[in-house]
Design goal:
- The protein folds into two domains: 2-116 and 258-275, Probable inorganic polyphosphate/atp-NAD kinase, domain 1 (Rossmann fold, 3-Layer(aba) Sandwich); 119-253, Probable inorganic polyphosphate/atp-NAD kinase, domain 2 (Tumour Suppressor Smad4), CATH 2.60.200.
- The protein is built from five helices and 19 strands.
- The protein has helices spanning 14-24, 63-73, 99-107, 181-184, 267-275, and strands at 2-7, 31-34, 56-61, 80-84, 94-95, 112-116, 119-124, 134-136, 139-143, 151-157, 160-167, 169-173, 197-202, 212-214, 220-224, 232-235, 239-242, 248-253, 258-262.
- It is globular, with a radius of gyration of 20 Å.
- The relative contact order is 0.15.
Length: 285
Amino acid sequence: MRIGVIGHPGYEGLTEILATLVREGPRLGLDVFYEEHMRSEVPDAPLLPEPASLHGLISLGGDGTLLRAARWLDGAEAPIMGVNLGRLGFLTSCRASDFPSYLERFAVGDFETDRRMAIDAAVLGPDTVPSKPMRALNDVVLHKGGLARVLQVRVWVNGELIGSLAADGIVLSTPTGSTAYSLSAGGPIVEPTIESILMTPIAAHTLAVRPILLPPDAEIEVQPDDAPEEILVTVDGQRGTTLAAGQRLRVTRSGSPVRIARFSGTFFARLRHKLGWGGVAERGE
């Protein structure tokens, strides 16, 4: 079984997890491949191959590391086992203390697979071909950068202009991303199996502008009016681009889902334990 490893070097506990992989990998029949920066911890480690050649991927860090792992897979079918080395770890599969036992289960396929919808974002002309799509598991955000001003933004859905709104920006999220930036901007929580695209304005200027839940096959285009250079597009909070005057942002459903390994618990249990939904967050989970 060919397993890839993507990790964040800033977390405590990474060294111990990598030592466990080096020690237990051969016993479990795993061929393990690593990001280049991990060679400081695992000398002469074999480097990550093409995503399609892997049977599984392990992310070591927090939710941000898992999001990066999902984008690196770029549609490949390998399930991701997220190991939480940070604080929240809402998307991850297990805690660091559980890793040795769950690694054995991951090696033999003893886990459930959550199929999570992803979205693609591309920048359109006016006179150029669309940019290469940027893939997001959580969200794509159009925002005004450091400007202290409201944006005027026009929005089309499936070619129909649905309105022009004034706001600090717009979050276009998957159901998975509904518990991220969209939630902070006042959007609803969407259960992950309800495939959809959630459009949430950021600090809308009028009370009439509210989040809209759209079908998964919707084609959404957003164009800022009189856009300055500081109009930014951010993907999963980690990468992005800018929009120039006259350009639009198009967001559509990705062709393949992201597969996340789950060993126990449900989505609603995570809401209670991690986000404190319904009261005070439960501790020790």
